[in-house]
Amino acid sequence: MAKPMKSIDITNKPELVDVAEEVRAAGEPRTLRRNDEAVAIIVPIIAMPIRPPKAPTTRRLKPKKLTDADLAAFRSAAGGWKDVDIDTFIEDIYTARSVERIPDER
Questions:
Q1: Backbone angles phi, psi at 79, to 5 degrees
Q2: Contact 44/24 with Cβ under 8 angstroms?
Q3: Residues 93, 91: Cα–Cα separation, whole Å
Q4: pLDDT tens track for 21-38
Q5: Is-contact 42 21, C-beta < 8 A?
Q6: How far is the C-alpha of 38 from the C-alpha of 22, rounded, in Å?
Q7: Of 3, 40, 69, 84, which is least packed with CB atoms within 10 Å of its CB?
Q8: Global confidence as pTM
Q9: Is the dihedral of CA 46, 51, 56, 59 positive or negative?
Q10: CA separation for the pair 53, 68 (Å, rounded)
Q11: Is the dihedral of CA 11, 17, 23, 27 positive or negative?
């Protein structure tokens, strides 16, 4: 478990209050430097994620109202594969997968 972060009370340190307010107003972190050396980073609290992001939501399509033509097309497809030799079909699939393909040049 992570240790809680220690805090520094800046109520009576007006220069630090000014810096903190500038960082909050900008909404972006700032690096504190002494000469050419970075010594600390101040990050506005509002810019930090407070809770993990929500899982993406999925949008469901509204069911389409089926027409008589839709049902007729569905029924006409029944038995459409009855003349297909399954063993040859499976062999053709494996053969097609093993063929080395030439990549498209774009």
A1: 80, 10
A2: yes
A3: 5
A4: 998 888 888 999 999 899
A5: no
A6: 18
A7: 3
A8: 0.40
A9: negative
A10: 45
A11: positive
Residue 41, token pair as written in the block: 């980073």
List of long-range contacts for 74-82, beta carbons under 8 Å, 24+ apart: none
> By three-state DSSP, how is residue 31 classified?
strand
What tokens does 46 get? 């509002």
Tens digits of residue pLDDT in 34-58 = 998 999 999 888 655 566 777 777 8
Q: What is the dihedral of CA 28, 31, 32, 37, to 10 degrees?
A: -170
Dist. CA 31–CA 40, nearest whole Å: 6
User: Which stretches of 1-106 are assigned E, i.e. beta strand?
Assistant: 30-34, 37-42
Residue 13 tokens, joined: 């340190």
